[in-house]
Protein 1
Amino acid sequence: MSRGQFLSIDSTDLEVKHLYEDVEENFADYEAYFQEIGLQLMAGDGYCYFARQQESKLTIEQKLQSFAQWVDILDFLKTYDITFSTGFQFRTTHILERINLDVELRDKARRLFRKQLTNQELVEKLVGELTGMGFAELINEEDGTHKVTAAFRYAEEMVGLIAIYNEEEIPEE
C-alpha cells in the first residue's frame, strides 16, 4: 500500500482480502500507528490506501500528472465498455481485438502510452497499470481474464470530482 497500491474487499488474493478485513476491523488502531510514521490511512467504499501527510509542490505536480493520466485511462476504459467498473471482468485479448477494430479506441490507446509501439504493448501496459494499482486482478491465467476490484471506485470517484463548466455557467463569487 505504501507504493500506491490499494487493498480491496473483493480481492481474490486471500492475503489481500485478509489484510483488508483486518484493517477494516481495527481501522482506528492502524490509522494511529501509520500517522506516527507520516502516512494517513484512508478508506473508501470497499477499499483502503495510504496518503502522505506532508506534500511538497513537486509531489502535488506529480499527482496532477498522474491524475490526468487516470482521466485518460478511465476515458479509454469507458469507451471500451461503458459498464467497466467494480466487478467487471475482461480479457486482455478482447481489449486488443477491440483496439484493432475500433479507430476511436485505438487513438485513445495510443495517447495513453506514447512509448509503446504495438497495440499488444499498449494493452500490456494498461493492464499492468490496473493490476499494479490493485484496480484489477488476474482471475484466470489460462485465458487472461481479469476482474475489476472495489479499489477502482477510487479512480472513478476522483474523476467524478471534476466539474467542467461552460463559460456561461461559471458560478460568480
Protein 2
Amino acid sequence: MTVRTTTLDNGFRIVSEHMPSLQSASVGVWVTAGGRHETPEQNGIAHFLEHMAFKGTTSRSALQIAEQIEDVGGYINAYTSREVTAFYARVLRNDVRLALDVISDILLNPLFETREIEVERYVILQEIGQALDTPDDVIFDWLQEKSYPKQALGRTILGEAERIRTFDRGDLLTFIDQHYGPEQMILSAAGAVDHDQIVAQAQHIFGNLKSRRQLTAETACFVGGERRFEKPLEQAHMALAFESPGYRADDFYTGQVYSMALGGGMSSRLFQEVREKRGLCYTIFAQTGAYSDTGMTTIYAGTGEDDLSDLAYLTIDEMKRAADDMNEDEVMRARTQMKAGLLMGLESPSSRAERLARMIQIWGKVPDLSVTVEKIDSVTTQDVRNFAAYVATQAAAAMALYGPISGAPDLSDLQARRTS
C-alpha cells in the first residue's frame, strides 16, 4: 500500500492510498474549518452548512444526490467537529469518479434555497432538543464550555437554538467565503483508487478555485470550572476534564497511553476498582482527546444518586494512585491496545481516508504507520507516572454534573482531595 500526495497550484491538497485487495473505496473532502473557527455570532453555522450540503445544488436535487450514490450501492455522509468539516462517500471501485463528482458538487454549487434552509433549521433544532434530552451527550458540551469558557473551542458544535433560528442564506455564504478556500480543503481517498485519475479529476474541478486569505482560530486556553444541573433522572451523570497536551505536543502519546491504562477498557484501573470491585456504576471510562494547541483528559461515569459522592472521590484517589504505582504490565497492555486499535481500524478504507486527511491537516504529510507505532512503544512507565502525577494534582480541571446531584461534591472539594 502506497501513500501519494499532490498539491495543486492553488494550494488544494490531495492524498490517497491504494489498497490492492479491495473492491471498494472511500473518498471525501475534509475542510479545515469547524466549530472553533466560528465567531460568537456564527456559532453553529459550520454544522448548519454540513446539513445544507445535501439539500440540492445547481445540477442535482436533494433526492438526486441521494439516489445517484445509492443507485450504485454507495453511502454518503458528512460530519462537523471543532476543527474540521468532512464530506465523504463509500463506493465500489468503478464509482469513485461519481462519488467525487457528487461531493464536489455539494461543496461548490449549493443552492441554499430558502425553503430548504427552513426545513433544515427545524431538523437542527430537533437535534439540539434531542441532545438536551440525552444526559451523556449534553454533559460533554457543558464540560467543554467550562474547560474553555468564552472561547470558540468551548462553544457547542450544534450552536444555541436562539442563534440557529436567525441564520439565513447570506450567513452560510459568508462562512464559505471565509473558510472554504482551496488551501483549506484536503481530498482524501483510500481503497481501490488510482491517485493519478483522482488528481486529474480534482484539477478539473478544484484547480481554478481562487486562493484566499485564511482566517486562523484563536489560541485556546484551558481554564476549568463547574456546571451542575439538577434534574430528577434515574442516574446522576458526572464528567471530569483535565488539561492535556495538543496533538503536536511531545507527550501526546503519553497522554493517550495514560488514559487507556486508567479507564480505556475492562482491565483498566477505573473499570476494575469502581465497577468490578465496588459496583458503584455501570459505565465509567477515561479518554484523552486533542486539538492543534490543547487537549483534554476526560473521565465519565453514570451512577445512582447515593453513590455519586463515593464515586467522585474514588476516581480522584485512583488518579493519584496511578502516579505512584502504575506498573510495566499496565503500560504495556495500554500500548498494545492502542496499536491494535490503530491497525485494526485501518483495515477499513474509510478509516484510512480519515487518517490520511488528519495527518495532512496536522503535519502536512503522512508519517509511516511504523513511526506512529514507534512513538507509542517509546512511552515508558515513568513517563506515564509523571503524566499521571501532573493530571492528578496540577492540571487545570473542569466538572459537569447532571441529574439527581444534590449530594455530589463541589469541584473545590475534589480539588482539595487532589492536593491532600
Protein 3
Amino acid sequence: MKADIHPDYHTIKIVMTDGSEFTTRSTWGKDGDTMNLDIDPKSHPAWTGGQAQIMDRAGRVSRFQKKFSGFLKEDKK
C-alpha cells in the first residue's frame, strides 16, 4: 500500500439540530472538531414524512407535465 495518500481519519463530535450530540470518526476537520448540522434525519421531511410540496415557479412543473404527459402510456387491454 502506498504511504501518505490516505486522509487523516480521526474523532469528531456531531451536533444534531435538536441539540443532541454523538462522537464518530471522520476525515472532516481536525481531531476534536465539532460539526453542527443544519439538516438531519430528525428534522428533514424526507425522513420524517413531512408535507413537502413541489414549488411551481413560472409554470415549470406544469410545462414538464404537459411535455411528458404521454411518454409512458400504459397498454389498454
